[in-house]
TrEMBL record:
GO terms for molecular function: D-xylulokinase activity. It is an enzyme of class 2 (transferase). Its EC number is 2.7.1.17. It holds the Pfam family FGGY_N. InterPro entries: ATPase_NBD, Carb_kinase_FGGY, Carb_kinase_FGGY_CS, FGGY_C, FGGY_Carb_Kinase, FGGY_N. Residues 289-453 form the Carbohydrate kinase FGGY C-terminal domain. Residues 4-246 form the Carbohydrate kinase FGGY N-terminal domain. Gene3D superfamilies: 3.30.420.40. Belongs to the FGGY kinase family. It comes from the Bacteria. PROSITE patterns: FGGY_KINASES_2. PANTHER family: SUGAR KINASE, XYLULOSE KINASE. This is Xylulokinase.
Length: 509
């Protein structure tokens, strides 16, 4: 009987799943769109039952129906989801509130200040290699303790997106080392056991999920989960990881020097390294691949900005999409390529939802600088796309400071459907960037790791043979020289306006 594998990933605005055969041909795929709630400034949430679990069940059933595969032939399942979320659940894995999302949610600023004072800045830097930031789960748990005491009292476990889905499938509460030791730092010891001393002001040690390796078998599909998902009862389920980690694996980030740029709702990057790199502007942790580390970083808004432009400035393109079926984002790009590099002096700061790295400033604000009467909305849009390239460029400068090698860069995610955007990033950074031949993303990586979990693949080297490059983007040297000047202005704009951004935030309190 032929073997098949399923991988399902839950993202900010969409969940995607894939069913593959033994040669990792895609037999079926399915996606489910959902929203993101923004109930207050700096608060971003998902309803875990109605979004995460609903999407997983819908996609799982759809994959089986589309492929007409007997569920018994699915040999393993892998799931990934948004990283660094905080979801309190009761003993029956029922959410006690909506999930507090990853670094885009920056509600726990006061808790970060308190924890820094409680432990001292030197201790925080020793643990994280940087100050506390909105991507850390510890302050999010403390926020619940301070603001929702009844939820805090009832909480059985604090989970992330992937650990919640895995728990719903198997009944076991797990989190992988890559996500758990980084996002929940310093609540675990490095061996994965709960740290009673650091947990004391935050939560009970028994409220944390068990730390395992990403490809370990977390458990097996329960009778209840089988009825809800269409999967066969007893199917192995790996621990899983966050979306960025799974996507990195799917694109071949398998050894030091391999790098992924994930163009999703936010821009996330993972660079595999052979050592920990301490710099308070970026994040670092152990990577999924044994005996490797990584530098990870991310902008809060990438695809989210293109969505904002579509909904607010390009309503004509949305209307045309509804009437003709032509993609609104493709229509928005018409004429953008004719605008010179640098958007004729227009520079955007993409901090529409605060910013993660390299600023680590939840109060940063978006800015459109250099407007003149000659600028059009096409200039505005090109400048917004270029701003993500400038942000990536800032990170590359940091890597160069630390003499961290980059051998290959693979771009993935929805943004790769816009080749002009990827070319802009290549021109701005001066780096060659490739896209993957298979662009389905994190769910493909989930399926790969599920196969490893049951030892269908013996090593990550076996996985590397499945990964092929698609299009290669080479930087235009003339445009790169032009962009260097604009990069310097971009870097200065935040520094010179930071205080004013914070003053605006104070006025809105």
């Amino acid at each position: 009987m032929k073997s098949y594998f399923i991988g399902i990933d839950t993202g900010t605005y969409e969940s995607k799943g894939v069913l593959v055969d033994e040669e990792f041909n895609i037999i079926a795929s399915h996606s489910a769109a959902h929203g993101m709630e923004n109930p207050k400034p700096n608060h971003f949430e998902h309803d875990a039952e109605k979004v995460w679990w609903h999407d997983f069940c819908e996609i799982s059933k759809a994959l089986l129906e589309k492929s007409d595969i007997d569920p018994k032939q699915i040999k393993a399942v892998g799931a990934s989801a948004l990283g660094a979320d905080c979801l309190p659940v009761d003993e029956n894995c029922v959410p006690l509130r909506k999930a507090i999302l990853y670094g885009i949610d920056s509600r726990a600023v006061e808790e970060m200040k308190w924890l820094t004072e409680y432990w001292g800045e030197d201790q925080i830097i020793e643990w994280f290699g940087r100050p506390l930031c909105s991507s850390d789960v510890m302050p999010k748990i403390l926020w619940i303790k301070n603001n929702e005491p009844e939820v805090y009292r009832k909480t059985y476990k604090y989970l992330t997106g992937s650990s919640y889905i895995t728990a719903k499938l198997t009944g076991n509460y797990t989190v992988d080392r890559f996500l758990g030791l980084a996002s929940f730092n310093p609540l675990y010891h490095r061996d994965g056991s709960p740290n009673e001393r650091t947990c004391e002001p935050i939560c009970r040690p028994d409220q944390l999920a068990a730390v395992m390796n990403t490809i370990d078998i977390a458990g097996y599909v329960t009778e209840k989960a089988a009825a809800e998902t269409g999967l066969f009862e007893g199917t192995p389920v790996i621990v899983g990881t966050d979306d960025a980690g799974a996507e990195a694996i799917s694109t071949g980030v398998l050894q030091a020097g391999d790098m992924m740029l994930m163009f999703g709702s936010s821009l996330y990057m993972i660079l595999c390294t052979d050592r920990l790199v301490n710099d308070n502007r970026i994040w670092r942790e152990e990577f999924i691949i044994p005996n490797t580390y990584d530098i990870s970083a991310g902008t809060n808004a990438a695809g989210t900005i293109t969505r904002w432009y579509r909904d607010n400035l390009f309503e004509d393109c949305l209307k045309s999409e509804r009437e003709t079926g032509l993609n609104a984002y493709e229509l928005m790009m018409e004429g953008v390529g004719e605008i010179p590099a640098g958007s004729e002096g227009l520079i955007t700061l993409p901090y529409f939802a605060g910013e993660r790295t390299p600023l680590n400033d939840p109060f940063a604000r978006g800015m459109i600088f250099g407007l003149t009467l000659k600028h059009t909305k096409k200039h505005l849009y090109r400048s917004a796309l270029e701003s993500i390239g400038y942000s990536i460029g800032q990170h590359f400068s940091i890597f160069e400071e630390h003499k961290v090698k980059i051998n290959a860069i693979m771009a993935v995610g929805g943004g790769t459907r816009n080749p002009e955007w990827i070319q802009m990033v290549s021109d701005i950074t001066g780096k060659e960037i490739a896209t993957a031949a298979v662009t389905i993303g994190a769910s493909f990586g989930d399926a790969m790791m599920a196969a490893m979990g049951i030892q269908f693949f013996k090593s990550y080297e076996d996985i590397s043979k499945l990964i092929k490059k698609g299009k290669i983007y080479k930087p235009d040297s003339e445009k790169h020289e032009i962009y260097k000047g604009y990069q310097r202005i971009f870097d200065e704009l935040y520094l010179r306006n930071k205080d004013l951004m914070h003053m605006v935030n104070d006025l809105e309190k």
